[in-house]
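Support reply, case 0932

Customer input (verbatim):
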Amino acid sequence: MAEMTESQRTWEAWFEAFTKIRDAWPEQADVPCPDGDAGQLHITYTGSPTNRIGFATLWCDVGRNGIFLSRVGIPEGAEMLSFDATPEQRAAAIPDIRLIPTDPYTAEDE
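Our regenerated output:
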């Protein structure tokens, strides 16, 4: 398998941060921002209140970078926007951030 690109390493670091925070729930996990800017990480879940499946946005309050993950299970008790949230509700919950692009592995990488 080919070595990961810099963008793949960056995305993977952000995904690992998300995983640590999610796995610690309902406890607070002290996970440093993958960008190394000493910012605090935040997660906003958006999904279905019925089955608690949706998506997650993880971002840093200093650098305003983050990732978007689709088809995630939303932990029981975690705050969540519903899919029909208004644009105003979404804007209040998720600031204007720069999403780190995914740079997926391709068959050519193997």
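We compared this against your earlier run and they match. Two observations from our side: The chain has a mean pLDDT of 90. DSSP finds two helices and five strands in the chain. Please reopen the case if you see a mismatch on your end.
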